[in-house]
Amino acid sequence: MNWCFAVINGKLGEIYFEKNKNGQINFLGHCYVKREWFKTKQEQKCIGADVKKVKIIYRNKKYRIDYVKKVKK
Fold first, then answer.
1. Which of 5, 16, 40, 62 counts the most CB atoms within 10 A of its CB?
2. Cα distance between residue 25 and residue 48, in whole Å
3. Mind giving me the DSSP string for 3-64?
């Protein structure tokens, strides 16, 4: 299982996922978090780096990935 920070429906959150052998991503779940909960510089840096990469839309129990421009898919 892997996780990362992402913008989910316009809010900061953690997304949990698995990659299978074919390279497909299976989403396991997510939770919304607040930036203030993470105090260290390293955590803040990780949030900034992850949020710039991918935005996730969760609707009708399905996830959709919206890649941000200037990032390779």
1. 5
2. 22
3. EEEEEETTEEEEEEEEE-TTS-EEEEEEEE--GGG--SHHHHHHHHHHHHHEEEEEETTEEE
| Gap between the Cα atoms of 43 and 5, Å rounded | 10
Of the candidates 65, 39, 62, 66, the one whose C-alpha atom is nearest the C-alpha of residue 47 is 39
CB atoms inside a 10 Å sphere around CB 51: 17
CA distance 12 to 50: 10
Q: Is the pLDDT of residue 73 over 60?
A: no
pTM here?
0.80
